[in-house]
Write a structure and sequence with these properties.
The chain is mainly β. The chain is built from no helices and 7 strands. 0% of the residues lie in helices and 40% in strands.
Length: 114
């Protein structure tokens, strides 16, 4: 028997509904336990916020962490289709490589360069 895995999920704001493969399993923050290995879809939904969906592939006994997922208020844009190579926000440790996916961004920026 393969070992089961777990998925730790938290969001900002908290108390978002958590769905695993389209089944409601609880609200954030939470740990989904007993997850079989393979590819799964995790979705977060909260009234007044855009839905978040992520596909994860997990192996036997692994713990996947989706921590502090920042849910955007409904009506906000994420600039789809734009690519900003060598983007930084305040220092060399804040570089985003081309093709990277931003899942969490702090709300305050002193300086942003593109």
């Amino acid at each position: 028997n393969p070992a089961t895995a777990s998925i730790k999920v938290s969001s900002i704001p908290s108390h978002a509904e958590v769905y695993l493969d389209s089944a409601l399993v609880g609200t954030t923050p939470m740990t989904i336990t007993g997850v079989g290995p393979g590819t799964h879809t995790v979705a977060l939904m909260k009234e007044g916020y855009q839905d978040y969906t992520r596909t994860v592939t997990i192996t036997d006994g692994e713990t996947v962490r989706l921590i502090n997922i920042f849910l955007l208020k409904s009506g906000f844009s994420q600039f789809p289709g734009m690519n900003y190579p060598n983007w930084s926000a305040g220092g060399p440790g804040s570089r985003i490589d081309p093709g990277a996916i931003i899942e969490r961004v702090n709300a305050r920026f002193d300086k942003v360069r593109f």
